[in-house]
């Protein structure tokens, strides 16, 4: 397992090059709790020490914070060493009763959400707390200002943002006093519009965490059919197209830490193994052009 870092300078935390996205274990269609916990444990056994979740990873308001409670239970029952595991969560995104999503970027809500996440995770300090998605009704400066207050108060160890453009990344880093640790944006073979943010964060030494790196829940198998070059290079390397996709992302920058989701132990292990795949510059160029 290769390792990378989240955070800059003395605040940096060493994490596995592949993280685990907890989202499929909490949304509609999620596995039962036993399988979910076994999936997290399998990922940890495979060398993963970075888990990403969110308060809104749930089926609706009735089980808000489900993902965080699940992660807390998995860590509490893990038989291995959990001392170096970084758990990231997010706030500012909520669920309707029908399962839809909406945002709330008010500073008072961000602080309230952080307190609820601390309780759900059963910790005194959150390892990485990320603002989930910009709220067009609230000035971004106000929202990130609340995140800064949480950071200054010691409620969170590291601060990040999600679903942000380059200007928002610059602004957030300025507000946080150069302490922006991560940017979590969607990036996958079928969604490459965050390439500019990936490039910018690489230049600034900010971790870039691609969410849904395999195309989203239920879409991982489509890579082989929709992106034949990925399948071709995967065959040449003797790996799966999904593993090849994660290796491609890792090759795009030392700051990139993909967080593929898994709902079964075997897929969690397969994703973790992608961290050890080395691609040539020619391979990356072929995949970039496909």
What does this structure look like?
The chain is α/β, with parallel strands linked by helices and 290 residues long. The chain has a single domain, classed as TIM Barrel (Alpha-Beta Barrel). 40% of the residues lie in helices and 16% in strands. The chain has eleven helices and eleven strands. A seven-stranded parallel sheet has the order 3-4-5-8-9-10-11, covered by helices on one side. Strands 1-2 form a two-stranded antiparallel ribbon. A hairpin with a 5-residue loop joins strand 6 and strand 7. Helix 1 (33-45) packs across helix 2 and helix 4 (140-152) crosses helix 5 (166-175). The chain is globular. The two termini are 27 Å apart. The relative contact order is 0.15.
| Averaged pLDDT | 96
Alpha carbon gap, first and last residue: 27 Å
Q: Topology as H/E string?
A: EEEHEHEEEHEHEHEHEHHHHH
Widest β-sheet, arrangement of strands: 3-4-5-8-9-10-11
In helices, the fraction of residues equals 40-55%
Total helical elements: 11
CATH homologous superfamily heading:
NADP-dependent oxidoreductase domain
Topology (SSEs and partners):
Elements (H helix, E strand, L loop, with lengths): L2 E4 L6 E4 L3 E2 L11 H13 L4 E3 L13 H11 L9 E6 L1 E3 L5 E3 L3 H15 L4 E6 L8 H13 L3 E7 L3 H10 L4 E5 L10 H10 L2 E2 L13 H5 L1 H10 L3 H11 L13 H9 L7 H9 L1
Parallel strand pairs: 3-4, 4-5, 5-8, 8-9, 9-10, 10-11
Antiparallel strand pairs: 1-2, 6-7
List keywords for this structure.
290 residues; alpha/beta; TIM Barrel; seven-stranded parallel β-sheet; two-stranded antiparallel ribbon; 11 helices; 11 strands
């Amino acid at each position: 397992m290769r390792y990378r870092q989240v955070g800059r300078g003395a605040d940096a935390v060493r994490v596995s090059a592949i993280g685990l996205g907890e989202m499929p274990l909490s949304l509609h269609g999620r596995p039962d709790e036993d399988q979910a916990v076994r999936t997290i444990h399998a990922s940890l056994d495979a060398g993963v020490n970075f888990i990403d979740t969110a308060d809104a990873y749930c089926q609706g308001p009735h089980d808000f914070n489900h993902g965080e409670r699940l992660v807390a239970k998995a860590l509490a029952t893990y038989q291995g060493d959990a001392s170096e595991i970084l758990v990231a969560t997010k706030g500012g995104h909520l669920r309707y009763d029908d399962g839809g999503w909406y945002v709330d970027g008010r500073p008072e809500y961000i602080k309230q959400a952080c307190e609820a996440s601390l309780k759900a995770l059963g910790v005194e300090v959150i390892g990485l707390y990320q603002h989930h998605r910009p709220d067009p009704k609230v000035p971004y400066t106000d929202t990130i200002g609340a995140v800064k207050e949480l950071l200054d108060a010691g409620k969170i160890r590291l601060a990040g943002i999600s679903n942000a453009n380059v200007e928002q990344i610059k602004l957030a880093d300025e507000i946080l006093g150069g302490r922006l640790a991560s940017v979590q944006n969607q990036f996958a073979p079928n969604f490459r519009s965050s390439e500019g943010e990936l490039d910018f964060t690489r230049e600034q030494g900010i971790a870039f965490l691609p969410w849904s790196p395999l195309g989203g829940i239920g879409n991982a198998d489509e890579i082989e059919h929709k992106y034949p070059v990925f399948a071709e290079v995967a065959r040449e390397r003797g790996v799966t197209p999904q593993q090849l996709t994660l290796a491609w992302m890792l090759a795009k920058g030392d700051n990139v830490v993909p967080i593929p989701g898994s709902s079964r132990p075997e897929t969690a292990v397969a994703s973790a193994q992608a961290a050890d795949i080395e691609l040539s510059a020619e391979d990356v160029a072929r995949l970039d052009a496909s």
